[in-house]
Amino acid sequence: MSQMFHLIRHAQASFGAADYDNLSELGHRQSAALGAALKRQGVAPDAVFIGGQKRHRQTWEGIESALGTGLTPIVVPGWNEFDFAGLLEARFAGRADKPADLHTDRKTHFRILRDTVLEWQRDEIANPPESFAAFTNRVREARAIVAASGAKTPLAVSSGGAIGRTVADVLDAPAEQMILLQLQVKNCAVARIVMAKGQEWLNGFNETPHIDGSNEKEMLTYS
Fold it and tell me: Which domains are present in the chain?
């Protein structure tokens, strides 16, 4: 039996706020709009998985408000994002060149995050919150849980890093492609992966069926 796995990035969170791990007002609307779009497409998940972070559950609740599956999501911590704030702090520990706007200016934050992830992958950061190998293994284990569920149309809500790692894996791409994929992933974007007989194929990436010409200016966000 083949499975069509829908892997969804959370809706807009609260960048620059004291607690990033909450959807913004727009994020709640994005997730409901995605649920409505998936319903129009005829997507009918028979199993749902979410990471353990608030923004994952909140995104699923918005999707479900329109999709109406009645499913209870299964929490799989392997779908959690890596601790990007902790990783950035580890990189700059004891250094005087940490930018003052590292966590408040988007352009600065994501430029430095890209370079930091590449250093992390090369084991060049001392005492990271989690090793890159451990992160990779838990994301792979999360995907294995989805595959083992036997669901025909499983759906998961996760974050950009875990999605980037997954897509790079499925494409058998070098590790450094993870951050390049991650930085492209839009809020509420959908990746589709066909799973069958222990093999995987990428069927779609960064799809935004909830965005059209009339709402793109409002709905298109990346963090």
Answer: 3-81+139-219 (3.40.50.1240), 83-129 (no CATH)
